[in-house]
Amino acid sequence: MADEMYRLPVILAAIALSQPVYAQKQLVLIDQDGAGPGDSNQMSMMVLLKSPRAEVLGITVVTGSAWRDEEVQHTLRMLELVGRSEVPVVPGAVFPLVRTREETVLAAQLYGKPAWWGAWDKDSSPWAVPPLKEGSPKIKPAEEDAAHFLIRQVRAHPRQVTIYAAGPLTNIALAVSIDPHFAEQAKGIVIMGGSINPQTSDPDIAANPRHEFNFWFDPEAARIVLRAHWPRIDVTTVDVSVKAMFTKEMFDAISKSSSRTAQYIAKYATDRYYLWDELAACAFLDRSIITKEQQVYMDVDVSHGPTYGDTLTRSEKLKPKASLPLVHAQMDVDLPKFSKMFLDLMSN
C-alpha cells in the first residue's frame, strides 16, 4: 500500500506531462464591436467560446461596425443560442475618443469616402435598437462599465490575461488611461487592426493600403493602445486577413452540423467576406497558423488630414523618439490549417 501511495503522484505527474499544451486554458477578455447576427464579430467570439484552449472571462462591447447598444443585444442573444449565457457582457464606449461623424462626413467630401462607415453608415440614433432577426435576449448586460471591468479582471489575474481586441480600441484606451499599469499587468494583447501593404485585387483595399476600419474609427484610441507597455502585441493585419475568405464551401460544411454554433451560423451568417476577426482569434489560440510576421514599430496617423487613421510603421532605425513597443504584425497564414481549425470549432 505504501509503494502504491508513493507511485500515485508520479503517475499523475506523468499523465499531466502527456497532456496537450493547451490543456491549461488561456484566460482571455474579448473586446469586440459585436454587430450581428452571424457576421465576423459574432463568429470570432464563438471561436474563443468554443475552444478548449481558452477561458473567456467576459465580453466588453464597443461601437464600431454598429452602435454599442444594438451590438450588446446581438451578443447577449448569441450567447443564449450557443449555450453560454453565463459569460458576462459589459457595455463600453458609445463614441470614439475624438473622431465625430460630422468631421468624418466633411472629410469624405474633401478627400473621398471610406469603403465602410460602420455605425456611421446611416445617421441613426446610437440608442435605437432595431428588432433583432434572431430574437431579443432574455439575459441582461452587466451594470459595470467596460474599462473598469477590464481593469478589475486583469488585476485579479496579473500577467495571465490576454486581451483579444477585434473592434475599435476605445474601451482598451480608456482602461489604459484610467490605470497606467493595466497594459503591463496583462499577458498581452491581440489586435485585429492595421494595414501595411496588402497584396490584393480588392479595389477598396488596394487603393488605400494603409487604411483599416478599427484604427480609422478611433485613431486616438489606437495610438494610446499601441504606445502602452504590453508584454506582447500581436496584430492581425489586413495583409493576412484578405487571404482568409469565408467561402460557400466552408459555410456548407458548417451548416451540416447540428451543433448550436453551426446552426446559428447556418441561420444568420449571410456574408461571404473576409474572416478578419476569426483569423485573429484562431491565431491567438495557435500561433503556428501564422507563417510570416514582421516585427515593426506601429503607430496611427492622428493628423486629422486625408490620412487620418492610417497605419504607420517604422523600422528600428527610423522609429520616432516616442515610446513604441515592437508589434508582431501577422503577414501570412497557413490557410488549410486555419480553415480546418475554424471549421472544427464551429462544427463541434
Fold and architecture overview:
The protein is of the alpha/beta class. It has a single domain (25-347), classed as Alpha-Beta Complex (Inosine-uridine Nucleoside N-ribohydrolase, Chain A), CATH 3.90.245. It is built from 15 helices and 9 strands. A 9-stranded mixed beta sheet has the order 3-2-1-4-5-6-9-7-8, with helices on both faces. Helix 2 links the parallel strand 1 and strand 2. Helix 2 runs parallel beside helix 14 and helix 6 (170-178) packs across helix 10 (219-226). The longest helix has 17 residues, at 2-18.
Structural topology:
Blueprint: H1 2-18, E1 26-32, H2 40-50, E2 54-61, H3 68-81, E3 89-91, H4 101-111, H5 146-156, E4 161-165, H6 170-178, H7 182-185, E5 188-192, H8 203-206, H9 213-217, H10 219-226, E6 233-236, H11 238-241, H12 248-255, H13 260-268, H14 276-285, E7 290-300, E8 311-314, E9 326-333, H15 335-347
Parallel strand pairs: 1-2, 1-4, 2-3, 4-5, 5-6, 6-9
Antiparallel strand pairs: 7-8, 7-9
Helix pairs in contact: 2-14, 5-6, 6-10, 12-13, 12-15
What profile does the largest beta sheet have? Answer: 9 strands, mixed
Total of helices? 15
Sheet-strand content, in percent, reads: 15-25%
Q: Can you identify the CATH superfamily?
A: Ribonucleoside hydrolase-like
- CATH architectural arrangement: Alpha-Beta Complex
> Roughly what percent helix?
25-40%
Shape: globular
Radius of gyration: 20 Å
Number of strands: 9
